[in-house]
Give the backbone structure.
Amino acid sequence: MYNSKIAGLGFYVPENVVTNDDLSKLMDTNDEWIQERTGIKERRHVVKGEDTTTSMGVKAAQKAIERAGIDKNDIDFIVFATLSPDYYFPGPGVLVQRDLGLKTVGALDIRNQCSGFVYGISVADQYIKSGMYKNVLVIGSELHSHGLDMTTRGRGVSVIFGDGAGAAVMTREEDPKKGVLSTHLHSEGEHAEELSLIAPGMGKRWVTDIIGDADPEDTSYFPYMNGQFVFKNAVVRFSEVIMEGLHTNNLTPTDIDILIPHQANLRISQFIQKKFGLSDDQVFNNIMKYGNTTAASIPIALTEAWEAGKVKEGDLVVLAAFGSGFTWGSAIIRW
Ligand code: UT7
């Protein structure tokens, strides 16, 4: 039995910067409200036609593969997490296999929204631990901007989300004390509709219903979020799942060298930081620059932290996420 480790990281964000002031020209919002409630100053939006969820994922993956120092033909499996796929089906995993020109390796799509990357790490970890695969490419990518309600009606959601992608190449770690020590995954479907996009869906509103009705009041194909309810659940679940991971490994919050929380809201990260008594150096945030990029937020943040020299050999790195589903999870990694 092996451990798994992250051997290479990469991220890609579109060039187009959208500031809070830019959004205030489209809807009734303002820089002060957005910064005070979320910490976000700007985010990236894909200019239509220039990128897709898959193309951003591919660019992040190319960087991760290069940094892992492996040949792309050594990738044994693809895991792709997103809530904003290019197509309703097939999912983006197979598009990555095609666009990267990989062998006919397996490709798995993960539908766990903000927790998607942590779920992806967990899946890859199990395959590597069992010996089935040696190198697994895990991607989180989102193109939110084309699907948001950019009017005052949608402001509670649309100011938060941004576009981008991050990727990790996971590989075998021979040292049992290093790499991914454990992962912890949870779900609570009771709250599925509290943060959701319910159409198009086979169950209630299919795409032909939406077109047929052509109802300007129909918001079923825009994301919905019960912000305060999600916030309250997020702070509880983040705390629980971080502690669960630490306990499993006989560790305490003081052992954390760097916590990379899903970038949902700066206030959530600050709450967790305070609760665990962590210093600014122990928690990495970049939501100010990119907004909430859902499945991409952890790999983008982890890559930036690594590039800045904040993730070093021997460090205890904790990844934690919470989001739509509700789903949440953590990964405890000895770098
Ligand atoms: O990543 C997945 C997990 N997601 C999260 O964890 C997000 C969790 N939730 C949040 O981050 C926060 O709830 C939000 C940032 C989404 C909202 O902040 P809030 O402090 O909970 O605000 P609120 O929804 O209670 O709205 C307060 C007021 C309302 O006006 P009234 O009813 O008090 O007059 C909203 O209509 O702010 C208004 N509002 C806005 N005003 C200016 C909502 N959105 C905006 C906006 N600009 N963009």
About this structure: The first helix runs from residue 20 to 24. The first strand starts at residue 3 and ends at 12.
